[in-house]
Amino acid sequence: MAITKNKMVSLTYDLRVVGADGEMIEQATAERPLNFVYGAGIMLPKFEALLEGLEQGKSFEINLACEDAYGEVDENAIIELPKNIFMIDGNFDDEIVKVGNTVPMMSTSGQRMNGLVLNVSDDVVKMDFNHPLAGEDLFFKGEILEVRDATDEEIAATVGCGSGGCGSGGCGSGEGGCGCDDESCSTEKSHGGCGCGC
């Protein structure tokens, strides 16, 4: 059976950043594969398009330029926020809001996002809301483990999950919801990649 719309796909992959000394930054294994409904709009569009037609047992290699992955680094997504918004009961949590940590935030419109803390000063916290893989060309190498018809429940579970995927707090499910969850991808570094469109 070939990968087409509304098929449940299970696959493995190694993800490397092109030009980063070949270091593997993320992996989905046979024990913890990436499972998703093909055509549900959850995966990176180019990644998904290049999988179409592949069958169980087929291997693949996919190169994605940054514009087909998580885009260029957006300088407008690097902002300074007033330090007082991080106060809880009058105290600043310097164990969580410290340089190098990723902090879950919410926009004024209610959208969940993750911000990387770049700097903490007396009055402001400088954060980067770009995807961790923004500006990077990506290389995926893997194998298709299974292709089958998705159940009505699996297809229904993908409705409204356009921002799901690994590490995004979306509605992904390792059992075949929309995209992968933290348990369906073993990661050396948590980048929220997985080919997911988050």
UniProtKB/TrEMBL annotation:
<keyword id="KW-0413">Isomerase</keyword>
<dbReference type="Pfam" id="PF00254">
    <property type="entry name" value="FKBP_C"/>
</dbReference>
<feature type="domain" description="PPIase FKBP-type">
    <location>
        <begin position="6"/>
        <end position="88"/>
    </location>
</feature>
<protein>
    <recommendedName>
        <fullName>Peptidyl-prolyl cis-trans isomerase</fullName>
        <ecNumber>5.2.1.8</ecNumber>
    </recommendedName>
</protein>
<keyword id="KW-0697">Rotamase</keyword>
<dbReference type="GO" id="GO:0003755">
    <property type="term" value="F:peptidyl-prolyl cis-trans isomerase activity"/>
</dbReference>
<dbReference type="InterPro" id="IPR001179">
    <property type="entry name" value="PPIase_FKBP_dom"/>
</dbReference>
<dbReference type="GO" id="GO:0005737">
    <property type="term" value="C:cytoplasm"/>
</dbReference>
<keyword id="KW-0143">Chaperone</keyword>
<dbReference type="GO" id="GO:0042026">
    <property type="term" value="P:protein refolding"/>
</dbReference>
<dbReference type="InterPro" id="IPR046357">
    <property type="entry name" value="PPIase_dom_sf"/>
</dbReference>
<dbReference type="InterPro" id="IPR048261">
    <property type="entry name" value="SlpA/SlyD-like_ins_sf"/>
</dbReference>
<comment type="similarity">
    <text>Belongs to the FKBP-type PPIase family.</text>
</comment>
<keyword id="KW-0963">Cytoplasm</keyword>
<comment type="function">
    <text>Also involved in hydrogenase metallocenter assembly, probably by participating in the nickel insertion step. This function in hydrogenase biosynthesis requires chaperone activity and the presence of the metal-binding domain, but not PPIase activity.</text>
</comment>
